Task: inverse folding
């Protein structure tokens, strides 16, 4: 059964040409095609020349968006002793020790991010089946296993985001809101590109960047000129 395309989406699709746009031009078009009745998310979908089934071709890291993400991040912290109080004082939405692990095992998932102290990781390992498929398992590489609880909470609340390439080598990242100015979206998109380049897997061979598309969460995909994005130099603001 063919799904009917709404008139709103048909009108948005009609505005997008089948070509690679200059980065700022693409982001202006993203805003123009964000016509839903709510503040849509700005998304980037990046195909890389990697095969994540090989360990030396996996990409998992974090990006700190200079202009934030426009989203409220609910942070859960698994720690013990004074670190629980530190987490609460630093703005964690939920904080606890073994009792929090038990709550999560029972199905409590009222959070978007989990931070844990290293000493709690043997217990947190029990949550692998629950947190792993959701991309929520704490990891040192992602900055979510740390003794600097307050610093980590501040960074993630301010716009730091973890991401990884999926099984097909595509990175899907939310990098702002459609209400952001095109210039702010570009600043965030450039930060994402630089992080992906800096963290190129050692086993990646040949052409690393294959395609970059941006879209509003309810809008059409808009291709971005990869070379123009990578060559772009932004003034430090």
Result:
């Amino acid at each position: 059964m063919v799904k009917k395309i709404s008139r709103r989406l048909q009108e948005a699709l009609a505005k997008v040409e089948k070509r690679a746009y200059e980065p700022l031009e693409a982001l202006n078009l993203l805003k123009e095609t964000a016509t839903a009745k709510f503040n849509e998310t700005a998304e980037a979908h990046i195909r890389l020349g990697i095969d994540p089934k090989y360990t030396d071709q996996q990409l998992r890291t974090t990006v700190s968006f200079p202009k934030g993400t426009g989203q409220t991040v609910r942070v859960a912290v698994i720690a013990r002793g004074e670190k629980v109080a530190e987490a609460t004082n630093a703005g964690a939405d939920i904080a606890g020790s073994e009792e929090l692990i038990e709550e999560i095992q029972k199905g409590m998932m009222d959070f978007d991010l989990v931070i844990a102290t290293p000493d709690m990781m043997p217990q947190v390992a029990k949550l692998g089946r629950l947190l792993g498929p959701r991309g929520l398992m704490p990891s040192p590489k992602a900055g979510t296993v740390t003794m600097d609880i307050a610093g980590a909470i501040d960074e993630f609340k301010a716009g730091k985001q973890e991401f990884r390439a999926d099984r097909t080598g595509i990175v899907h990242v939310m990098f702002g809101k459609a209400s952001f100015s095109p210039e702010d979206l570009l600043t965030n998109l450039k930060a994402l590109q630089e992080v992906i380049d800096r963290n190129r897997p050692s086993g990646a061979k040949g052409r690393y960047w294959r395609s970059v598309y941006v879209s509003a969460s309810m809008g059409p995909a808009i291709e971005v000129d990869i070379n123009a994005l990578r060559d772009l130099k932004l003034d430090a603001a």
User: Anything to note?
Assistant: The chain is about 30% helix and 20% strand. The radius of gyration is 19 Å. Strands lie at 41-48, 60-64, 75-78, 94-96, 113-116, 160-164, 170-177, 209-216, 222-223. The first helix runs from residue 7 to 14.
